[in-house]
Amino acid sequence: MKQFTSLNGLVVPLDRSNVDTDAIIPKQFLKSIQRTGFGPNLFDAWRYLDEGQPGRDNAQRPLNPDFVLNQDRYQGAQILLARENFGCGSSREHAPWALDDYGICALIASSFADIFYNNCFKNGLLPIVLPAPVIDQLFQSVANQPGYRLAIDLVAQTVKTPEGAEYGFSVNEFHKYCLLNGLDEIGLTLRHADEIRAYETRRAQSEPWIFGVSA
Amino acid sequence: MNPLSLYEKLWQSHVVREEPDGTALLYIDRHLVHEVTSPQAFEGLRLASRGLWRRDSILATADHNTPTTQQTVIADPVSRLQVETLDDNCRRYGITEFPMGDHRQGIVHVIGPEQGATLPGMTVVCGDSHTSTHGAFAALAMGIGTSEVEHVLATQTLLTRKAKTMQVRVEGALPPGVTAKDVALAIIGDIGTAGGTGHAIEFAGSTIRGLSMEGRMTLCNMAIEAGARAGMVAVDDTTIRYLKGRPYAPKGSQWEAAVAYWRTLHSDEGVRFDKVVTLNSETIEPLVTWGTSPEMVVVVNGRVPDPALEPDDTRREGMERALRYMDLQPNMAISDIAIDKIFIGSCTNSRLEDLRAAAVILKGRKVAPNIKLALVVPGSGLVKEAAEQEGLDKIFVAAGFEWRNPGCSMCLGMNDDRLLSGERCASTSNRNFEGRQGAGGRTHLVSPQMAAAAAVAGHFVDVRTFLD
Ligand code: SF4
Q1: Which top CATH class is A10-151?
Q2: pTM, whole model, 2 decimals?
Q3: Which of residues 32-91 of A touch B (CB under 8 A)?
Q4: Closest-approach residue (CA) in chain A for B98
Q5: pLDDT tens-digit profile of B121-168?
Q6: What's the CA gap between A26 and A178, in Å, rounded?
Q7: CA of B160: how far to CAs of A58, A172, A191, B35, B229, in Å?
Q8: Most exposed of B196, B259, B361, B403 (fewest Cβ within 10 Å)?
């Protein structure tokens, strides 16, 4: 997995609450059996004026000039600023894959939906929760200052603004450890294989009907 | 002993180990797999030369891309490849699959319970957010992402943290014309789509105890729309009666032992929940969503809300955007909204009871001329067969509906069933997001009988006027 330690990146603001994963990556792109290549279709329905289909050359499609991702000043953004309940809806991991493929490394919002929040960590993306008033302030700063960047430090768990403000954020120890080291969770879990087997032996005694049944 | 909630009981009985920071390795009993969220997980296993931990925990089916017409080969090559990839993976790893064409095939959340593959006391996962459905059986059922699907395939465990607990208590008798779907929408309208974030919801109270398993599944299905990590209902006679004799359910002396254990799966007297919400079901009316989030809900005899009255800026802008997308005016009567398409189906409302309820309304009536397409898509091949035995298919067809093969269908339009841009649909599914049923399509969520009544009227109408 990709590592994340710190980042000083350009911020792109997406000023909506309840952004769902259908909006992040629409369903027609879920037919892929690959993990990569979703970036050009990130926020497809908002980003383009026509309807996207897998396999179409996105470079030929009409862009929606009003959508933030299409504005010159936000090209190359690595941090997405959003509002409450970002990533709600479907559990599709294609959503973080698309954000990652596009180049987003961290997200800042006042809250995230649970499954999406988890899926971010599995893909080397850092979702950061900051209080709503801070988010308001950040939206204003981004709007007023072209080229607005934030400095994120995962070790110190801080976000620093160019004005010198510093906000702490929380992240659970395990997620932090995996992200800092780019670790594969399956490999980590398999170190406990014996414990899993011992657990199974116990359960097979108490609830035998769970095991070895097929229709 | 400390009183425990149902969630805590399920949690404690599945913890393999717990780290000091609260991250736990939770054992997974049942893993349901479908074609959309699994290919990259199997690919990951192969790349790391890892095998399956426990093959008999897995049940697979293709549902999202499958055609609902008589087509036996999927025309779209991208969809076809995804379904074939699942078939290949199941063959290669020896996984039980109900593939296209098998009469047990259907929506993953319909077939699990139908087969008895979902049992009380289990942990159930699937790479699909509506896995919460299975919580109706007092199971801890959670939607997971593809990396987690791979993790469960390889280790039979999920790395997760304990959720907070929330009780949603609904008391009272359900008035005629009001269904589990309306209860679900009423709860989401009340607590909001983020109201359950970080929580596992237990639905309790006399209304819930009075619901059939189908109704409880509808309710738990939409726990995710309330933002919850899981939804669940305690075991009672209704649960046990439903499970008896199902193919995967325990038999003989194991059945007796299982039932004795299952009867302990309820929250103990005096347990404290982190959050409690109560509703009186007698005040619930048939509901319709007007916007692009399931919390944007209003009674059928009500009006589209006016954003001008909303004091909060972000909320007001969200309402204005939703009204623009939905092409609705503030204050217009819900019953003045004309509809183009009707969809009865999805893991929320495609079980036999749902089809029966819609058929009651449609019997001897016809779909209005302005309806371009009215679809019924049973949740599984077995639901379809059972409905046909009762003659429900004939009622639907006589009314002007198309009687289709099982699958997710127009719930999300990954197959050919979808809304065209600008089309408006009365749908029994669970999500009314922008473009959910097709780019530019407009979705209004309703119960099956409300969808049937809307089909007959050509616009939304209070289903209670159809009941004598
Ligand atoms: S019916 Fe709809 S919500 Fe249910 S699993 Fe299929 S696509 Fe998802």
Answers
A1: alpha beta
A2: 0.93
A3: 32-35, 45, 51, 54-55, 83-85, 88-91
A4: A215
A5: 999 999 999 999 999 999 999 999 999 999 999 999 999 999 999 999
A6: 29
A7: 38, 11, 17, 24, 11
A8: B259
